[in-house]
């Protein structure tokens, strides 16, 4: 085969291969998402993060405004410290609050950021004061059963008293 | 009786020693290819020609099988996910299984049988027809002129082929899942993008395919170079290339997966 056609085919092949990698990176993967250079870090400590994982979305009013950058454990307070990377396009007031929510009944967990009323805005490295940890389903069920047995015991007691 | 027993024990020992010494020769061969790669990079058109024979000529089989593997994943995944009412996760299933495992592994298996066997047969035949010996007579280093360009051509082609395989597979899954069955298009892509990480999944898949490319090509080149210069020898070497490199791909895949995805 002629060298020019050979070069053309190989060039086509390499371009197609690189295009495939780009397709995987941008369309299949999440490289096109938040650029870490365009975010500011905000810390928050929670008593329980449940099943939250790094890279989970940070949402405000249901819109993704950032991602969970890092999850750590503070050995002094025995609390989980979560670092959020919030896009610089979305400044939030200093007294904003973070809570861990679940999308759907069994879906993935995310952090809901609720804007406060402060006039000062959060800057890189700030700590969120108001936080609410994850609701653990087992605790909820346990509480429910406990209340239930309490109320049935009460009802039984009332019946006995009536007799 | 005693003699036969002793003979069989000796046979085991001889075969083991043969295997180990062949491994040693293969390792030395691999180093030699690396050391003699300089000249072939200076004559880059040699590598370009090998990218053509190893990569471009494998395009059709890679693209078609990628498409079909993706379509099968789409069908089967939908069947299973549907029972749990989470058919939107189809994109995640298709893309993760392709990018992490099936893309590199199946592309490398196809590459071993399509390009690896061709390399072995070509070099084995060159040796049988004494072309290699003729080169040595003319003071042309056959490793630098014949072996190294083939090595680099195949190693460059492999990750590109694996990426094309994965991309075609995702498109196949999209065709079956979204176009044919009617999974919601938005959640198909968005859940996929939320689950697939560039560094964790895609880059590790590319690393896998590079490792497989090096393994397959080294085995193919060595088997060809080491083949007895007879018709039977070349045919057996070609068979051995496909068998050994398939086993090497699957074994290496386990090791690499254990390294890359443990505890994630």
Written account of the structure:
The complex is a heterodimer of chains A (163) and B (264). Chain A has two helices and eight strands, in the order αββββββββα. Chain A has 163 residues and is of the alpha/beta class. Chain A folds into two domains: 1-32; 36-138, no CATH class. In chain A, a hairpin with a 4-residue loop joins strand 3 and strand 4 (79-87). The model of chain A has no long low-confidence stretch (mean pLDDT 83). Chain B is mostly helical and 264 residues long. Chain B has one domain. Chain B contains ten helices and no strands. The mean pLDDT of chain B is 91. The A-B interface holds A 1, 3, 6-7, 9-10, 12-14, 16-18, 20-21, 23-25, 27-33, 55, 57 and B 45, 48-49, 51-52, 55-56, 59, 95, 99, 157, 159-161, 163-164, 166-168, 170, 189, 192-194, 196-198, 201-202, 206.
Extract low-pLDDT stretches of chain A: none
Oligomer: heterodimer
What's the SSE pattern of chain B? HHHHHHHHHH
The CA-CA distance between the termini of chain B, in Å, is 57 Å
Mean pLDDT of chain A: 83
Tally of domains of chain B: 1
Low-confidence stretches of chain B: none
- Chain-averaged pLDDT of chain B: 91
Overall geometry of chain B comes to globular
Tally the beta strands of chain A. 8
Number of helices of chain A: 2
Strand percentage of chain B: under 5%
Alpha-carbon Rg of chain B, integer = 22 Å
Structural class of chain A: alpha/beta
- Approximate shape of chain A: elongated
Major beta sheet summary of chain A: 8 strands, mixed
- DSSP helical segment count of chain B: 10
Order of helices and strands of chain A: HEEEEEEEEH
The largest inter-chain interface, given as chain pair and residues per side, is: A-B, 26 and 30 residues
